[in-house]
Design goal:
The protein is mainly β. It contains 4 helices and 21 strands. The protein has a 19-stranded antiparallel beta sheet that branches. Strands 8-9 form a two-stranded antiparallel ribbon.
């Protein structure tokens, strides 16, 4: 069932990234100007974050699976505070060939989210250095672009982002932890004051075999390949244009939509399921190959109004999927298909004058739920069925339950700091409202200090998903203090979550207690 729910969302993430430093596909060749020689540009940041998390298990005891809501110290389960520091060094590189038509772009992450002190060399108490992780360098993107008189042709591994990042999110924000990317060939063209894009994604390619005498492989079971096709169109203005029009008291309207479809005929579960011994999927005449019959379609619409005194932005999505044969065990077949229909919508508003001292607004969102126990954020193949009181688990357990209807918003679509970001992992099976505001406390020539705050109230769509079987989830207050210059940003974040009855332990009759978080973020930009 991981394939049904996750891939339905991933299928909607087939969009194009014309720049390594951005993941929307609206910048159709603006960076291609005449050049007499090869030019190289680089940008990025070094990020380090420290945090203290207090009582994120909410002091409400264990779930039916014997686990707390959030990890607790093993030496003293009654302890309340966990601390953590991590870092990331990100570089976006852009190489432009002589002329004005060809570019190659890439993104590299070094020590990506590596916990500080997690790799001591030798005995921990005597270490004097840290060793490098096995995946010290991650190549996030590498693709080429060709600017033609009638459009842009892109091919390779590129980031994906759409609208507000609710479904497809390229992970470009300074505090983002994940990122969507796809291996694809895409064509983008501006027509009639709009941008049109067609993309073909190599989402997954079946088992590989080596070619004699070559350092190459070839997929030899084409029916197991997963492919995605996306058509998108939008009307878009860049940030400079929007700002100029705001100052001129003009309204800017932007919008767009896409349809994406993903499919897979057959599957080989033995290539990705955890097993005690390596599995040869082609032993016994290829009995490891199973009919799958997977189809997923996503629709998304995005709209943004930029007024002289406000920004109003909204996005809505519908994801559907069908798996004709949901069984992952060769030789064990289910009679009925598994199906999914997931719906989500989000609204963001920001009211205030251009470069004003005070601003604020109200955000809101909805993500459809599933009546199965748990929220279903983390999907693991062959995981046991969740029990009432569990916070997570598969949302479909064939043959008893053949539906997965909870929409999981992207983990980097952040609305809070504790409940959805830390405890649940993403916004799903919920309705939320988020009033927020900010005030500029001080400004110098190249720096400013700003105070932000937000209050997030949320409730579950399906009360059977919560640990207590009651819908109210919580009220969270998230203030921040942010200092920023052109090349440096520091933020001190605080959060306190007041959990409501949805997190009470009805077995032991214990009410959930408040949780708190403090986070310091340091970002060095170049």
């Amino acid at each position: 069932m991981k394939r049904l729910c996750c891939a339905a969302i991933c299928a909607a993430a087939a969009l194009v990234a014309p720049r390594a430093g951005a993941t929307g596909f609206h910048e159709v060749g603006q960076d291609y100007v005449p050049r007499e020689k090869t030019e190289v540009e680089a940008s990025g940041y070094l990020r380090t974050r420290g945090e203290a998390l207090y009582n994120l298990d909410l002091d409400r005891g264990l779930m039916p699976n014997g686990q707390p809501l959030f990890p607790v110290p093993q030496g003293d389960p009654r302890a309340q505070t966990l601390t953590h520091w991590d870092m990331r060094f990100r570089t976006d590189v852009r190489l432009y060939a002589p002329g004005s038509m060809v570019g190659v772009k890439a993104r590299f992450d070094v020590l990506d989210n590596v916990a500080l002190g997690s790799l001591p060399e030798g005995i921990p108490s005597a270490t004097v250095t840290q060793r490098s992780p096995a995946d010290v360098l991650r190549v996030r993107r590498a693709y080429g672009e060709l600017l033609l008189p009638f459009g842009l042709l892109a091919a390779g591994r590129m980031g994906t982002h759409w609208g507000m990042g609710m479904v497809a999110n390229g992970g470009d924000c300074l505090d983002c932890d994940t990122a969507d990317a796809a291996d694809r060939v895409a064509f983008i063209t501006p027509l009639f004051s709009h941008i049109f894009a067609l993309a073909y994604d190599f989402s997954a390619t079946g088992p590989q075999a080596g070619r004699p005498g070559q350092n190459r492989t070839i997929g030899f079971e084409p029916t197991t390949d997963v492919r995605t096709v996306t058509f998108a169109w939008l009307r878009w203005r860049d940030e400079e244009t929007r700002l100029r029009r705001r100052k001129a008291n003009k309204v800017t309207v932007e919008y767009g939509s896409y349809i994406t479809h993903r499919w897979q005929s057959d599957d080989i579960p033995g290539t990705y399921l955890p097993t005690a011994q390596p599995v040869d999927p082609f032993a016994n005449g290829g009995s490891g190959i199973m009919a799958r019959g997977y189809r997923a379609t996503g629709f998304d619409a995005w709209l943004r109004f930029t007024l002289p005194w406000a920004r109003i932005e909204a996005e809505g999505a519908l994801l559907t999927a069908t798996v004709d044969q949901p069984s992952l065990v060769p030789g064990v077949l289910f009679r009925d298909p598994a199906k999914s229909r997931q719906i989500a919508a989000a609204l963001q508003t920001d009211f205030g004058a251009v470069d004003g001292v005070v601003a604020g607004g109200v955000d809101a969102g909805y993500a459809s739920g599933d009546p199965a126990p748990g929220f279903g954020v983390v999907q693991r193949p062959n995981a046991r069925a969740p029990q009432p009181g569990d916070i997570d688990g598969p949302q479909a357990i064939p043959r008893r339950d053949n539906r997965v209807d909870n929409f999981r918003m992207h983990p980097d679509f952040r609305i809070d700091r504790i409940l959805f970001r830390e405890i649940l992992g993403a916004v799903t099976d919920a309705v939320y409202a988020r009033p927020h505001g900010r005030v500029r406390l001080a400004r110098a020539k190249s720096a400013q200090l700003t105070a932000h705050t937000a209050v997030i109230a949320s409730t579950a769509v399906e009360k059977t998903s919560t640990p207590s079987g009651k819908a109210p989830l919580g009220v969270e207050v998230d203030p921040s203090l942010v200092f920023e210059t052109h090349s440096f940003l520091a933020a001190l974040d605080y959060a306190v979550l007041f959990p409501l009855s949805g997190f009470d332990n009805t077995v032991t009759n214990v009410s959930a207690k408040p949780a708190q978080l403090v986070r310091l973020r340091l970002n060095y930009l170049f």
